[in-house]
Amino acid sequence: MSATSLDGLDFTDRQDFDDADRGFQARLEPGAVKNDKGEVVWDGDAFAFLEGEAPETVDPSLWRQSQLCARQGLYEVCEGVYQVRGLDLSNMTIIEGDTGVIVVDPLVSSETAAAALGLYQSARGDRQVSAVVYTHSHIDHFGGVLGVIDPARNRVPILAPEGFMEHAVEENVYAGPAMLRRAMYYAGAALDTGPEGIVGMGLGLTTSHGSSAIVPPTVDIARTGQEETIDGVRLVFQLTPGTEAPSEMNFHLPQRRALCMAENATHNMHNILTLRGAVVRDARVWSRYLNEAILMFADDSDVLFASHHWPTWGADRIRSYLAVQRDLYAYMHDQTLRLLNRGYTGSELAERIEMPPGLAEAWSARGYYGSLSHNTKAIYQRYMGWFDGHPSSLWEYPPEQSAARYAKAFGGADALTAKGREFLEGGDARFAAQLLKHAVFAEPSNGEAKELLASAYERLGLAAENGTWRNYYLMGAKELRGGIEPTAVSSAGMAAALTVTQVFDSVAIRVDGPKAASEPMVVDWVFTDIGERYRTELSNGVLIHWHSTGDEGTEPDLTLRLTKAELLGLLEGENAEAIEHDGDPAVLGRLLAVLDEPDLNFAIVTP
User: Which of 200, 229, 465, 580 has its CA 20 to 30 A from that of 519?
Assistant: First the structure.
C-alpha cells in the first residue's frame, strides 16, 4: 500500500501495453456517452490525464494499471471475436455468427451498451444481435442489456449460468440499497477525476451511471461440458459457481480457439469479499476451477479474453497466466487457514501474510481491486465468522457509544483529537485514523477532528496501490469536508424482472418488525396476467408468503385481483383504487404503512 510495495516490479516490462493495444480497430469519438436527457453517463475522455509519468499523488503501480484500463475502443481479439473496452467498468465482447452477432456481457448501462454496439457496427457493418450471453450475476455484465436488444420486438436466446436470476436478485435487490451506498465509496462516485481524485478502480476506470435493467435468461447452462451452438457458433461451457460470483461460467470457442474466462481471471488480484459487500467467495474452489480451465482448454486456445482488461495470446502465455491466477487464490486461502489454525485472528494474519516472489512480482496478481489485506480477512470470515474469539469482542459497544468512552478515557474529544494529530504528524496515518474516528463520532461538530481525519484518509488514499481503497479513503475525506452527496443511481430497473416470490421477498425485508408486530393480516393476491395466486400473512412482525391454492381453509382479510405490474406500482406508491378487490381495502394501507424505506444516503464516516 506504499512505495515499498513496488519492490521487484519491472516497470520496463511493456507486454501488457502491447496486448492492450493489439487489434485496435476504432475509437468512440468523443468518448462521452449521454442519456436521452443529454446527461453524460460515461466520460472516458476525462481520464486523458493518465498519459505520462505517475505524479506524487498516485501510486506508480496503480497509475500503470489505470493507463492500461484507459485504452478505449473496438479491438479484434481473433477472427470473428471483438471487444469494446473502455466504455464502462467491464468489456462487451461481440462474437460474429452466421447471421448476426452474439453479445457477451452488455455492460452496466443501456446507454454505454448501445454505444459499444454502435461502435462495432460502424466498423463491421450493421449485424443484428442474434443472442446474448451473461457470464455471471453482477450488474456490470447484464445491466445494459436493453441497449443491445428490445425483448418486446426481437426475442433472442439469452444464455446464463444456472442460478443466475436468483443470485442477481439477491445481490442487487435484497441488500441493494446498502451495497449501492457503499459502492458509491469504492467506485469514487463523487470524486473529481484526476491525479488527486479518481484514477480508476483497478478492474477498470469506473462505472457508468445510466439506466440498468435485467432480461431473464432463456437458456440455463447447468453443467460443465455443456455445449450450445448459437447462430453457427459452438460454445463449450465450464460452470464455476462460488468463484468471482455465486453464479458464473467460462466458455470456450473451439472454432476460434478462444477462451473466455468471464471474471475468474483478470489482470489483477480480485476480491474474495468486495468493499461494497457481497457473499464471501470461495478462494479454494476458485483456484480449482482455474486449474480445471487449464486442463480443459489451454492446449486448444490461442487467445484468452475476459470480461475486464485485455487479452492474452499464445498457449504458453495462457497457461502461465492462468497458473499465476490459480496459485494466487490458493496461496491466500491456504496461508490464511494455516495461520488461523495457529490462533491468529483476521486482522493479525492479514499483517503476516506476504506473497512469494513469483506472485508478488507478477503484474496480473497485484492488488489493484482486491487486496491481500481484505481478502485474507474475508477468508477468515468465511471459516470463522465475525467473532475473533476474544471474550471482549462478544459485546462491544457500537461506534457512537464506544467513541464517547474513548473520548472520556483520553480526557475529552479535544485531547483525543490532539493525540490523533500527534500520530498523523508522526507519519502514522493508520492509527491516527483510528483515534480520530472516535473523536468525530464522540463530537460530530468538532471541525478540527473532522479535518484531521479527512487528512489522514487523504494521505492513506493517495498512497494506495489498490484502486478501491484509494477511492474509499478519498470519498471518506470528501464527505467529512463537504457532507453526503445524494446517491444518483438505484437498482429500480431490476424490479420488472423479479418473480412474484422475489417481489414479496423484497417486501418482507422492508417490514418494520416492532411496528408490524401488532398488525396481523392476511391478503390473497390473484395475478390475472400470469395465472398465479399468492397469500401473504403478516404474523409477529414477519411477512410470510407462499404460492396459494386458494383452499387454505381461512378467509383472507383482503383479496386483490391485479397484474404483476400493478403490484410493482402499488409498492412505488401508485393509487390502488382501480384494482379489483374483495374484503376490506384498508388492509392494504395498513400493510404498506409498516414498510420501511431504505436509506440510500446513510452516513458512513460520521454518526
Answer: 580
Residues 492, 508, 168: CA angle, nearest 5 degrees: 45
DSSP state of 465: S
Residues forming beta bridges with residue 595, ordered by sequence position = 511
The three cell numbers locating residue 242: 462460488
pTM recorded for the entire structure: 0.95
Q: What are the domain boundaries of the chain? A: 14-176+187-265+279-326, 396-463, 498-593
Sign of the alpha-carbon dihedral angle for 50, 55, 59, 64: positive
CATH of domain 14-176+187-265+279-326: 3.60.15.30
At residue 345, the 3 state secondary structure works out as: coil
Taking the mean position of all CA atoms in its chain, how far away is CA 376? Answer: 19
The average pLDDT across 447-454 equals 98
Is pLDDT at 1 greater than 50 in this prediction?
Answer: no
Question: Do the Cβ atoms of 244 and 294 come closer than 8 Å?
Answer: no
- Is there a contact between 187 and 474 (Cβ–Cβ < 8 Å)? no
**Residue whose C-alpha is closest to residue 282's, from 334, 237, 220:** 334
293 with 251: CB under 8 angstroms? no
Which residue in this structure is represented by grid cell 481503497? 469
101-129 per-position pLDDT tens digit:
999 999 999 999 999 999 999 999 999 99
